[in-house]
Every structure is written in C-alpha cells, then in structure tokens.
Specification:
TIM Barrel; binds S-adenosyl-L-homocysteine; alpha/beta
Length: 363
C-alpha cells in the first residue's frame, strides 16, 4: 500500500502500523506532518504543562533499566517533606502551570500512602482547587488508588513499559514484586475508578521489535487510555540492561522511532494527551520540540528542588537538572512559540478524549 493510502485509513491493522514505524526520510516526514495536522485540527496548537515533583527515589522495585532501582547502592536516597512538596506546588501555581504531577519510586507502606493522601488534599487547598493533580507512584492496591482519587487526584500515570509479556520479563526481574499481570491489573483498576489513566512504553529497548511496538500502540487503543507517555530508552551504566547498550538503535534512531510512535498514535487516538518526555531532550537538544511537532501536547517541566535532582536520575544526563523553575518557565514559553505552539496557562489541560468519553456516559 502506498504511504498516502495508509495515512488516509480509518483504522490501522498491526501490519499498517509496522509499515508506518518503518518509514524513513521523506516518508517519515509525511507521517509526522499528517499527525501534526490531525493534532491542530482536533486539539489546536495548545501545550499543557504539568509541574513535575519528584517526591522520592526510595523504591521497593528493581527494574532492570532504572537508575534508582533498589539494587543500585550508589544512589543517595531522599524523600521530600510535605512542606517542600507544597512549596513546589505553590511555585507551579504561581507560574500558571495549572497542574502538578507527583512522581516517585514505588512504596506501599502506610506512612507513604497517608502522606500522599494528605499532600493531595493540601495541594487541592491551594487557591480553591486551582491545580490539577497527576500521580505517578507505581503499583498500589485498588483501595489506595481509590483513596487518592477521593482525596482529589484525577490523573494517574503507570506505564506498562511493554505490553508484550516476554519483553516485559526481559526488562524486569521475574518475581512477586515485578509481575506483568499485576501491572495490567493496576491499569484496569485506575480506569475503573475513573482516573484519567496514562500509560506508555520506552522506545528502543533491547529485544524490542517493530512488531512489539505496534502491539503496544494497539494496546493503548484497546484500553482506551486518556494519556500516553513514550520516550527513548536511555541505558544507565549502573543498571543490568546497560550490558546491551551497544546492541540497541543509535540515539538518533531511538529518537526517530519515538517520534513515529507518537505520530502513529496521534492518528489512532487523535484527542488523547501525549507527553513530550524529558528523555527526548536528553538524546536530542530539540527532542521535546520534535515530539510536540510529531503530535505530543503535554510537557512536564521539572519543579523538584535542585539539590535533589541529581539523585532522581532514572537515566543518565537528564536534561534541565540545573535549571531553576523560573528559568524553565521562560525557556519553555519561548521554545513553544518558536515552533508555532502556545502554552495554555492556568488550566488543568485535561484529556479531550477522556472528557468526551465521560460526557457520553453521563448523557
Ligand atoms: N515508580 C513509578 C515512576 C517510574 S519513573 C512507576 O513505576 O510508574 C517514570 C518512567 O521513566 C518509567 O515508567 C519508565 O518508563 C521511564 N524510565 C525509567 N528508566 C528509564 C531509562 N533508563 N530510560 C528511559 N526511560 C526510563
């Protein structure tokens, strides 16, 4: 099938997606352009911000790709105090970001759960609920997800990391703490509770094929998620997966593959929120802009107090680690304007796909 025919199709089969992910050069540019046009038509040129607060790098898991895995003993572990988190949230509000995202290593203990509940409630008190709240705190019980939802969190990010069980176990230990079925069940639980649920994968992992990536996109569609985050895999020298660092695609190829994944998904799910992950900027100084131009519409500027950022290196050479929040603010504004986009300040920036789905259910 010619590219033009393919791009005009209403629904993509797996083979179509594989063909699109394999495009290069001029054909790849056509794909990205089509995705951009669809985004402009459905979501305008808005970019939504989530002030990212990296609450803690203390983690009970040992994912084979992640720099803050519990078995990496080189990491100094930290946890922000409630007041520090509140200060970040207030700063996000002052800068007009509209939403915050709290991310952390995974913990399930009672003290952690209760701290999050209190924090969500306290953030909601800022200017009468002005800030939207996204959580990205790993796998939890249905009850805990419910408790945080009732406290006021309305979005949750939990990447499936790979929808292919075999690949999942190549990038995670295979034990009771790292269980593919459990991760899937968590995503289902979040959807059922009513969160705007986000998931996603890393792109360019060892053993990852175009076939597997196509299945990932079909998985997002099947689950009808509201948000997706996809970024290039960046090998961290203090992790087991680093041994394959010379067997994965080049940084440029991982970047391009990420852009194609974003673009194809924009065509498949035109109104979801998709983040231009910071990892994009680590492999390419213009990576976030490129992701926005390929169909992403969300950016998560880092609000973590600078003294802790060096300790939240899930991957090495993370971008913007030394930037102050105010610098980030004006830098992003300029960068987005330069590529014909505008940041929508002081708005939650909810997923349009989700909002429409809910209003259909209600009416
Ligand atoms: N503990 C939370 C947050 C994890 S960090 C959770 O489990 O959901 C957020 C995301 O960073 C992960 O889901 C993973 O997809 C990504 N990530 C981790 N290590 C990475 C690496 N080396 N390169 C690129 N992305 C990475």
């Amino acid at each position: 099938m010619t590219l033009q025919h393919l791009l005009d199709k209403q629904y993509f089969e797996k083979e179509d997606i594989v063909q699109l992910l394999a495009t290069e050069g001029e054909e790849m540019q056509q794909l990205l352009q089509k995705a951009r046009e669809v985004k402009f038509a459905r979501l305008d040129n808005y970019v939504h911000l989530r002030g990212l607060i990296e609450l803690s790098n203390i983690c009970r898991k040992s994912c084979l790709y992640c720099g803050v895995r519990s078995d990496n003993h080189k990491v100094d572990r930290y946890e922000l105090t409630e007041d520090e988190v509140l200060e970040c949230a207030q700063m996000a509000h002052k800068l007009g970001y509209g939403s915050v995202a709290i991310q952390s290593g995974e913990r399930n203990d009672k003290a952690f759960v209760e701290k999050i509940t209190r924090l969500v409630k306290r953030i909601k008190e800022i200017d009468n609920g002005a800030l939207g709240i996204t959580l990205s705190l790993g796998e939890q019980s249905d009850e805990v997800y419910q408790e945080w939802f009732e406290a006021g969190a309305h979005r949750y990010l939990l990447r499936i990391e790979s929808s292919n069980e075999e690949l999942y176990y190549k990038i995670h230990p295979h034990d009771e703490r790292h269980d593919f079925a459990r991760r899937l069940a968590c995503i289902d639980s979040l959807l059922k509770i009513g969160y705007q649920t986000g998931t996603g994968v890393m792109v360019g992992l060892p053993f990852q094929t175009l076939d597997v990536l196509a299945e990932d996109l079909l998985f997002f569609k099947k689950k009808d998620v509201a948000m997706v985050g996809m970024g290039p895999f960046i090998p961290h020298p203090d992790t087991p997966l680093y041994q394959y660092a010379n067997q994965i695609p080049s940084a440029e190829d991982r970047m391009n593959l990420t852009l194609k994944m974003i673009a194809v998904l924009r065509l498949m799910m035109p109104e979801i929120n998709m983040v231009a992950a910071t990892a994009n900027q680590t492999v390419d100084p213009m990576g976030r802009e490129k992701a926005i131009m390929a169909g992403a519409n969300v950016i998560m500027p880092n609000m973590t107090p600078n003294e802790y950022r060096e300790d939240y290196l899930i991957y090495p050479d993370k971008a913007c680690v030394s930037d102050k929040p105010e610098e980030c603010y004006s830098c992003l504004d300029i960068r987005m304007k330069a590529i014909g986009h505008q940041i929508l300040y002081n708005a939650w920036g909810d997923s349009v796909a989700f909002t429409k789905k809910i209003s259909k259910l209600v009416n």
